[in-house]
Amino acid sequence: MDENVLFNPGDAISESHDYNEALRSADIYNAKHGRKRGLLIARPLEQDDGYSVFYADDLIAADGPKPNTRKYHVEKRLPSED
């Protein structure tokens, strides 16, 4: 998957320098709260390391206003269980 997206970094559910730790955080979050909303793990494009977990629907549209946004590369999507 080669997908770049925009997010407000303050909307991150968790952040980690390690991909596996970010994935584990997403799994723990889903276990506690259920998969009512899809999550995704993304890496900031301006940095060589680090991963953030976001709600997939918090994605900011490229054609909309972009205050406080950063570009991220989507590493993995964890869909909701609807």
From TrEMBL:
<protein>
    <submittedName>
        <fullName>Uncharacterized protein</fullName>
    </submittedName>
</protein>
